[in-house]
Specification:
Largest sheet of chain A: 6 strands, mixed
Largest interface: A-B, 37 and 37 residues
Strand content of chain A: 25-35%
Radius of gyration of chain A: 19 Å
Number of domains of chain A: 1
Oligomer: homodimer
Low-confidence stretches of chain A: 1-19
CATH class of chain A: Alpha Beta
Shape of chain A: globular
CATH architecture of chain A: 3-Layer(aba) Sandwich
Amino acid sequence: MQYPNNIRKTYSKINVSHSNRGMSLENALNLSNKYYLDKDIALIYKKPTPIGIVDVSYKNNKKVIEKAYFKEQSTLDYNGLYRGKYIDFDAKETLNKTAFPLSNIHEHQSIHIRNVIRHKGIVFLIIRMNAITYLLTGKDYINYIDNTKRKSISYKYIEEKAYIIKESYQPPLDYLKVVDEIYFKGE
Amino acid sequence: MQYPNNIRKTYSKINVSHSNRGMSLENALNLSNKYYLDKDIALIYKKPTPIGIVDVSYKNNKKVIEKAYFKEQSTLDYNGLYRGKYIDFDAKETLNKTAFPLSNIHEHQSIHIRNVIRHKGIVFLIIRMNAITYLLTGKDYINYIDNTKRKSISYKYIEEKAYIIKESYQPPLDYLKVVDEIYFKGE
């Protein structure tokens, strides 16, 4: 069966869009970082999850971890170098439609965000909620938590302050385009 | 028994020096990074070692790693933010007295060093050999490997090109003092 050209095109667009929407935020970011690396645009890596090792054995002179548990990252998950600047961020998804629970960001991570701002690095959160991916700057995050007793960030604040990261085929999440707008405007 | 002042001083100096010499390079760097963090001088962290997970179980709703193996880091072990600049390095010790074996640095790490230089970050190696701790800039490292077929860096080259990092009590290895000299001269 043959479809006319325009139908095929639409179909393929929907397909692409669907495939991104089904992609986990972490996967989309890893693919985007690989794209940035391959195109020599930026060097951004996800840090490995820290573990606490309980037991190891040796097989053919190779260390094998026999028991370990996951530990909390004391910094944010992603960092690297873009346009000569230090860049640092974390990515979080929530199914909550009206607010982003602050329990997603640990106290030592909030301290780290303050530290990076003070030391003149670029720092932000990537938040996916209501099927939209947002970039919230570290400054706007800190401003919010310093002026609230709430245990979550209202979706209204995110809609007002955060920047939408558009989904595309390659890279799946072009968050550096938003970084350009915010941090390199006029350069 | 009372020693004259000058003898006591000498004794205490030797003591400090001894205690640092017994400290592993990794431990000395972790303590130095903690010192820099506590004094708000720099934000530099060692990346967790990446692992490949083979098997997990769940105990009281908590994920436990039942089998895993160590993977190679595709970047360098340490990175962070200092004086508004991206900083990235690795630390290696060798018992070899005449040369630093290049097998210590994997091919993808050499590529990463080239990438950081091109993207205008600060990148270097900290090398401990013959009981001295050196800082070799990424540029001098790349210059060497690009112009040799040897499988090691001669100690002569390290003595000629690398900067000595002095050991002290706190921080145990004040490598940022050397970074200041090389990368922030005249600022």
